[in-house]
């Protein structure tokens, strides 16, 4: 079996599994406890925060440990909306965000907030002039992702940050960084981002662990009340083993990012060449996208049929994103990119990871070509 679903989740580094189990066994004490075991756990937590901060080039005090990016995105969006509602009740985002951003915005709309959903072009990228026009005096937050989880489209974050701050220096800029970290360079200060969320399991770290960067001086209304952990922003006993394991994965991913990027670019080129030659397939990703996400459609075929056909042939792939792959609706992301209903309803995603070698591309293309020729009669039958 070859696993081609790294945008859904990644296998943890061996070091991450070892660290997790070691810390769980040896340092199970509550880091808030006053005894020496508690202090040892608190020290590990402090160290983990320092390692994560160094990987992101930010201050340790600017990081909040979370359970993942769904929580981080909720904390960033609802937390800033509630904190700064006296500045206005307007938010800007795009129509192609992950549900953990999109649904937060929808929920705020139902509470009376105004949300502008910026359109994207055929490549999935926003228009900077439209953004400039959209930012207002009462815009509290702009939330735009780094890399799209379905199409791989990369948003021009440095330009976005510059424009947002030029038009309204008080507007906060949040970046959902989940699909970019470890794959592309991350430059939070250059982007002028105030908030940046990550999920550890997307960069070979543990599941159920994430981190939210909150720029010094930015206040968030806490969504979870209770103890004073995480600067009062996230009450609840900390996941020490998860934090230490995540810090390890962050450091390793950050160190290996340039090498991984170079290998993925080569792999993607081979995959693009192969996919383009298969009759009936429509490639939705392009050379400007992040190299680890490749999206294509087989119009006329329900994508789950392709998932199961490829699974039988030893390849694990996905339809749309993991969070919405059980829904049979067309992809909101592809529709926003102007794709037809047919293309948006037959999307298939493969996503690359550190385990892939160049030879895997040829194997995948061969299997895919076989699957397509076997499935073609189904499309023709159903089309008639
Ligand atoms: N944002 C993006 C772009 C994602 O791809 C995902 C997960 O697929 C998330 C947020 C949510 O991450 P998690 O499910 O780990 O909370």
TrEMBL record:
Q: Does the keyword Transmembrane helix apply?
A: no
Question: Which cofactors does the annotated protein need, by name?
Answer: pyridoxal 5'-phosphate
Domain spans labelled Aminotransferase class V: 2-356
Which Gene3D superfamilies does the protein's record reference?
1.10.260.50, Aspartate Aminotransferase, domain 1, Type I PLP-dependent aspartate aminotransferase-like (Major domain)
Keyword entries, A-Z: Iron, Iron-sulfur, Metal-binding, Pyridoxal phosphate
Annotated GO MF terms = cysteine desulfurase activity; iron-sulfur cluster binding; metal ion binding
| SUPFAM superfamilies xrefs | PLP-dependent transferases
Pfam family membership, one: Aminotran_5
Q: Which family does it belong to?
A: Belongs to the class-V pyridoxal-phosphate-dependent aminotransferase family. NifS/IscS subfamily.
Protein's UniProt name: Cysteine desulfurase
Q: What is the lineage of its organism?
A: Bacteria, Bacillati, Bacillota, Bacilli, Bacillales
